[in-house]
């Protein structure tokens, strides 16, 4: 054992046992192969980094094969480098197959970049969502209806990809739906999974539109199975409904510039009918309010008489009644009086609380 260790030590510390060093350098293929391998090992990570790495390594091993065949004339050099080059080629083929397998249609790829990339949604989760809608893109022609008020059942959830859709109720325009917005998010959130219902609005395509649609039952099963996807849809639907509410909020306002806050799309029907019913009464009371009051009689000047001093009056048994509190003035009260009847306004003020919503509002 000691003899073997001493022999190994001598070989390490002594010079090489070569009979003589070659005076000429190797061929250009040898040096080219080493340079290509150096560039290959500088590759990064990820799919495209692997493309860079195995592409340069394969090229370097091919250069070694040519050097071993033409210059070194060594069969072992040719065989080993050929095997390494084939391994790099197979790895590149596997990467190309994975990329083609992960490729989505153009519409779904653009949808992923627009909605999911800012939220850092994994591609695997997005594929589950796309698989649920069967990767089908549906179309609507101009003036074709997606849903009819009171007739179309709520059995799907759709997302607009291109075009513009008009939303109306009772023939009156409410708001528009633009690309990458849900077409029926309020109906989806307002209806439990176990119940059935119909649309309360009419959706009509103003331009040629394309959209994707998820069947209601299939999407509910996916959301129940995948918690991450359920949270993702909750965020997207909540944002979409808030945008629609803000669009509706701009449709209802008073003359004095105070925007009323609408929390439900169905509130429009109640507020519109209440405003139309109270129209004649508010006009009559408006005339009474604006009728000028008669001027008080002008006091005549009287001579001042000096009265003898009198004894102070005894204290009153009951304190005098305090004057009634005057109604607080509000900006542009004339405009407010033309919209809100005085009787209902006085009832609200007598309770000492502010109304949760306007009692009478103008028609949209």
UniProtKB/TrEMBL annotation:
**GO CC entries:** sarcolemma
One MF annotation (Gene Ontology) recorded for this entry: cAMP binding
Question: Mind listing the UniProt keywords for this protein, alphabetically?
Answer: Membrane, Transmembrane, Transmembrane helix
Q: Which parts of the chain span the membrane according to its record?
A: 77-97
Q: Where is the composition biased (Polar residues)?
A: 341-353
Which GO BP terms, alphabetically? heart development; regulation of membrane potential; skeletal muscle tissue development; striated muscle cell differentiation
**Domain POPDC1-3 positions:** 26-251
Q: Where in the cell is it found?
A: Membrane
Highest rank taxon of the organism: Eukaryota
Pfam families in the record, alphabetically?
A: POPDC1-3
The record gives the membrane topology as: Multi-pass membrane protein
Identify the InterPro entries for this entry: cNMP-bd_dom_sf (IPR018490), POPDC1-3 (IPR006916), POPDC1-3_dom (IPR055272)
Segments of this protein annotated with the region Disordered: 276-364
| SUPFAM superfamilies per the UniProt record, alphabetical | cAMP-binding domain-like
PANTHER family the record matches: POPEYE DOMAIN CONTAINING PROTEIN, POPEYE DOMAIN-CONTAINING PROTEIN 2
Similarity annotation: Belongs to the popeye family.
Q: What is this protein called?
A: Popeye domain cAMP effector 2
